[in-house]
Amino acid sequence: MFKTRFFACLALAVPVLYYSPMLQEWFGYTAIGFPGSAFVGPVLGVVIFAYGGVPFLRMGAVEAKSREPGMMLLISLAITVAFVYSLAAVVFGIGEPFFWELVTLIVIFLLGHWIEMRSIRRASGALDELAELIPQTAERVTKEGDTEEVSVEDLEADDLVLVRPGTNVPADGVVEEGTSNVTEAMITGESKPVSKEPGEEVIGGTTNRDGSLRVRVTATGEETTLSGIMRLVEEAQESRSRTQVLADRAAGWLFYAAIGVAAITAAAWTAAVGFGLPVVERVVTVLVIACPHALGLAVPLVVAINTTMAASNGMIVRDRIAMEQARELDTVVFDKTGTLTEGEQGVVEIATAERWDDEDVLALAAAAEGDSEHMIAQAIREEARERNLSVPDVSGFEALEGRGVRATLEAEAPLPGGDSGRDDEVVYVGGPNLLRHLEVDLGRDLEAFAERAGERGQGVVYLVRDGGAVGALALADVVREESFEAVTALEELGVEVAILTGDDEDVARAVSEDLGVDTYFAEVLPEDKDVNIQELQHQGELVAMVGDGVNDAPALTRANVGIAIGSGTDVAVESADVVLVENDPRDVASLVRLSSKSYRKMQENLVWAAGYNVFALPLAAGVLAPVGVLLSPAVGAVLMSASTVIVAINAQLLRRAEI
């Protein structure tokens, strides 16, 4: 609405300015005349007032009715007084009208409020994104054993459904047949796919990966876990209190000041010279100068520049109030998986038997895992690629269910360190089940390594060759290099860091120790994430939540500042106040610094925009009239416009700030 009215009024304001006698005199030009050209300003001024000024009049009426005067009421008062005075000047010839000042006021106010409204996002899209996780249809198994496609809405408790590989689970339930790995990261925050066997629960909206499952439905519709998350998001959105903007408070104070000065001016001038045109001109000048022309742009201009700077530094600001609050943060809570970590398994440490080195073990393990699609195999191969290792040739790959893999080294296959394979030499890579199956003894060093890795919540796989374990590889969700810098930068800013994760205690503790973070919450379900944020807030802390998954959505919305990793799910992005496009946790510290510098600029602009009235209002009232200094309404409008220019220049200085 503000955008439409701004462009319409801007177009209409151009001829008003062009035909303004004062502007013609100032700039030394003569407007093209035609019959009735003298009425261009008054006619279009009436149109602009009626069309562009109406929103402010309506909002001003609301402020008056609620007895909470603010910017809208002050704007309404200023444009109404200017309009009535100018109209009376044309109709009754009682003075010089200033329609060009009036239309300029309205156009600038429309622009300012359009910019302001654009900076405030609506998070209602988060619920739609959550709903999209549930498929529209499901394959229900009939009593005869066949399947029929039905709407998810038609599912009932105790129905049996077939969940094929690569599809989403349609409702909460219990596995009756089949085994598979299910990705639950978007719901529980668990970084690793979870193995599902008969008797285990599955959650609606999670993704079945590699096997078919027959699931007995236990909950549908509003009773599902995902629906519970949606309710939490909705409640958190509704619970966000409206923070009053500084400019509104300043405008409220200025309203009373303007009314007071105008009343005193009217009384003093009436007593001195009697009521007449001079008194009206003094009162109008006071109200026009008091008009928050600069005040109306003091915050939106900084917000516009702030938003541009944030975007150029990899941050999309969706909620202006949250951006302002970021400077006051006490605690930043990071979701672990995909935020502080890579969100996928990686080799974090290697231990070897005597006469073997890390690269020997890694190269041979990568060779053995060459044909495997398991996420552990992918992590081992990726580590070998990053180290540019030469991987020996193998054949006869075989996956050993529940144990690992087996492969045969090709004859004379070269190995790192000058060793070579022998005919039919078999190598194995697998976990503890493989060792038990092959009756392999780890040895003291490798066993101690495995124990340490287990204490840190890391998984361990072993390389077996010549009937013995020659190496062990610890795998975990790898901590990102940027995370160390992010934690350090936030602590330097006086902000405490905490970690929130659905992973188990050992994993959470290990990551916290790596990053030097004292506070962490482990094995946290979606509803607990929301509760943890509330608990911190109840302790009087201003909290930011940084996350990337569906399970983070309630906490992102509940937090004072919700920050989503841009590569995360659409739900997380829709629930957040700020989105980190570059997927870089270091940008959180940049956000805090930008918020602080932007707020300082807002304060400076507000001080000037309202503060210049301390000097301008007395001049407008005529305190220097005895010495010949008397401001006309038009000059008052010029002074008020000059304050706007100063505010604009000061806002532009924000671009030089380093964040």
Could you explain the architecture of this structure?
The chain is of the alpha+beta class. The protein has 4 domains: 2-121 and 242-294 and 597-656, no CATH class; 135-223, Calcium-transporting ATPase, cytoplasmic transduction domain A; 305-341 and 480-596, HAD superfamily/HAD-like (Rossmann fold, 3-Layer(aba) Sandwich); 342-478, Calcium-transporting ATPase, cytoplasmic domain N, CATH 3.40.1110. The protein has 26 helices and 22 strands. Strand 21, helix 23 and strand 22 form a beta-alpha-beta unit. The longest helix has 28 residues, at 246-273. It is elongated.
SSE arrangement:
Blueprint: H1 2-18, H2 21-27, H3 40-52, H4 54-66, H5 71-92, H6 99-118, H7 125-131, E1 137-141, E2 147-151, E3 160-163, E4 172-177, E5 180-183, H8 185-188, E6 194-196, E7 201-202, E8 207-208, E9 213-219, H9 225-239, H10 246-273, H11 277-290, H12 293-312, E10 315-317, H13 320-325, E11 331-335, H14 336-340, E12 341-352, H15 358-368, H16 375-386, E13 394-400, E14 404-409, E15 425-430, H17 432-438, H18 444-455, E16 459-465, E17 468-479, H19 481-492, E18 496-500, H20 505-515, E19 519-521, H21 526-538, E20 543-547, H22 553-558, E21 561-565, H23 570-575, E22 578-580, H24 587-611, H25 613-621, H26 633-652
Helix pairs in contact: 1-3, 1-6, 3-5, 3-6, 4-5, 5-6, 5-10, 5-11, 6-12, 7-9, 10-11, 11-25, 11-26, 12-24, 12-26, 15-16, 24-26
